[in-house]
Amino acid sequence: MVDGPVTEVARELNVHEIARCRPTEAAGERAERTRLRAELAEKGRDVALRKEISAYYAAQHHR
Fold it and tell me: Model pTM?
């Protein structure tokens, strides 16, 4: 448990460092998250397609 004046607690939790982040840095992080989410979605679609293709060929092989 953290006790003490707000400024001391904030300093102990490095809140002052977090608050110094520039808005452009935050925007850059948001842009990177957006890019990574899109990449993850694309990879998910790729995996789903590969599963469908492998199921198709497995079904063809058993005929």
Answer: 0.55
